[in-house]
Specification:
202 residues; Alpha-Beta Plaits; 7 strands; 34% helix
């Protein structure tokens, strides 16, 4: 059944997402399906789709000037990353779909949403070409973000991302998790302290 409910804008209304700074982002697959590989003995083993995701993510700085990538981890059904916007930016040769998507979704060129949207579109196109499934949905439409405001938060987030495969059994994106990770309680608390809204639209 088609849902005709109008989507709400879940981003901070008073925050400029082209502002220089660090962002913790999480992008999940559609229906949280594990598409990118498997975790064995605490190590993420990427399959062909996971390798496409990794390569597409690493190419972001070649498409967006003055955007720097920090740590990131491709998990079975999501990607965690820290992305740094050093100044207001624009795409140089990102996905051909980007200009059309920007107009359709009313995104600001160079914003965090535009960067994430361009990455997801490029990765989806490559994956669908690999399996000859044009137009197949790979990602959830939304993504989660957290504005990183200090060095201590950055270090804690970096540690979490790097150790994420070891904590897969606690990960809230894992459909078979057997516990709760205290990191999520911490990130929620910090977000509320700064009035962040972490689920965004790209």
């Amino acid at each position: 059944m088609k849902n005709n409910t109008r989507r709400h804008n879940l981003r901070l209304s008073d925050y400029d997402y082209t502002t220089p700074g660090c962002y913790f982002v999480t992008m999940c697959t559609d229906k949280r399906t594990c598409l990118f590989g498997n975790i064995i003995n605490g190590t993420m083993l990427l399959n062909d789709v996971g390798l496409i995701i990794q390569k597409a993510w690493l190419q972001i700085p070649t498409h967006f000037e003055q955007v720097t990538l920090d740590v990131f981890t491709v998990m079975p059904n999501h990607l965690h990353a820290v992305i740094i916007i050093q100044s207001i930016v624009g795409a140089t040769h990102a996905s051909p779909l980007q200009k059309k998507a920007l107009l359709k979704r009313r995104l600001v060129p160079g914003s965090l949403g535009a960067i994430v949207g361009s990455f997801k579109a490029a990765a989806s196109k490559q994956i669908n070409n690999l399996f000859s499934h044009p137009g197949k949905s790979i990602w959830q439409r939304n993504f989660f973000e957290h504005i990183i405001r200090n060095e201590s938060s950055l270090e804690r987030i970096r540690e979490y991302i790097c150790n994420n495969p070891l904590r897969w059994h606690l990960d809230q994106e894992n459909p078979q998790r057997d516990g709760l990770d205290e990191f999520y309680a911490w990130i929620d608390k910090e977000g509320k302290n700064f009035r962040d809204i972490k689920r965004c639209q790209e």
